[in-house]
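call fold target=Mannitol dehydrogenase family protein
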Amino acid sequence: MKLSNATLDTLPASIRRPTYDRSRLTPGIVHIGLGNFHRAHQAWYLHRLFEMGLNHDWAIVGAGVRPYDAQMREKMAAQDFLTTLIELAPDSRSAEVTGAMIDYLPIEEGNGPLIAQMADPEIRIVALTVTEGGYYIDPVTKGFDAAHPDIQHDATNPSAPRTAFGAMVAALRLRRDRGIGPFTGQSCDNLQGNGKILRQTVVSLARLSDPDLAEWIDTNCTFPNSMVDCIVPATGPNELALVRELGIEDAVPVTHENFRQWVIEDDFCAGRPDWDRVGATFSDRVHDFETMKIRILNGGHQVISDAGEVLGVETISGCMEHPLIAGLFRKVEVEEIVPHVAPVPGMVPEAYVELIARRFSNPAIVDTTRRVAFDGSSRHPGFILPSVRDGLAKGIPVEGLALVSAAWARYCTGVREDGSAVAPNDPFWETLQPRAEAARTNPQIWLENRALYGDLADEPRFAEAFGKWLRQIHAEGLEAALRTYLER
């Protein structure tokens, strides 16, 4: 059955579908970056509110800023912006159709439709999932990268910007000039202090073309920090086949695990939905929740995914079945990451490691090591290296984290140990791959990538351990290095 408003009542009885009247929903949120994660996470919370008869003036208008977003828009529009969510528990599965999104803006050069929609008084939140590497952060200073060509374009063409942030600035200029008032900018990406980073990007970009506007934004707009969590694989042939098995023709279904968490600062200048009524947590301790999740879960993903890729293990659950990779995960987490993580209400770090191990081990979630290993140039500095720096400062071991970095360097040579080629899997692959090759004989060359490692190349305890592991990996193989580490 082709998914659409008209066919909702004829879907199989086992599939939950919207009980609210979607024609009566009105928009309150523009969400930029309509990937699988957003539809399984933030949009789901809103859908649940609508099911309770609440907040029907907070529907989502989807948006994108890149030409490839037009294909997603076309697919979503053909099915009335509905999404089939398939929850995959280790021993069961269930499905529901969600309808929190009611439109998807046309993708146009200069982002005119997006700017106009965000300038509409009905819009009170502009949310984003644009990946960790999408915020124009200078890799060395961690400040705003004003020299990036996209940013330079937007600074000189503020009415026809290229980036999502330039479009936000243009819309906020219209709102200020029309007396409409500000909106909340809400990052939903895996970044420590994601709201603070979003504020930095938007305000800094505005300052390049209109300092007065930048000051108005900084004073009036809010950018709440948040922690988001749900494992959501990419959609491929398996997922498309699964939704067909359920009796639904959905061009863009989403599979996800049976776990969600959302912790948010309650800092919304123009109001917000009652997300706390459906399981979200509003807290002034978002930083602690973020640290636990980013260090243990996101860091744990990097611990196992690069090793899995090098050894030809295709899925995250497969990595957890591999005794050496699973051993690496547990030893590094307990000895080198947990000591830097504070407990949060209801959870201590050691218990969180066990929770993550169970989630990673779920065989129903076909989450590929390639997906998780993507963009290591953003994820290692964001998820792994902070624990390295803390370990060096506190005198806590960093041997396992150095091994994780060595496995990433080995992965970036572009060839697995079975001889198969690794297709480019990082925005900076063309820079990383030759450096990884050169590091075969001189490991220090890898660490001299100061944009990623900063002064860690000069820290003997980390640099010497990294060099030792990388030499062993190239001489004897990754499994030999993992055994050596686990026997310590």
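return ok
The radius of gyration is 23 Å. Residues 62 and 426 are 26 Å apart (CA to CA).
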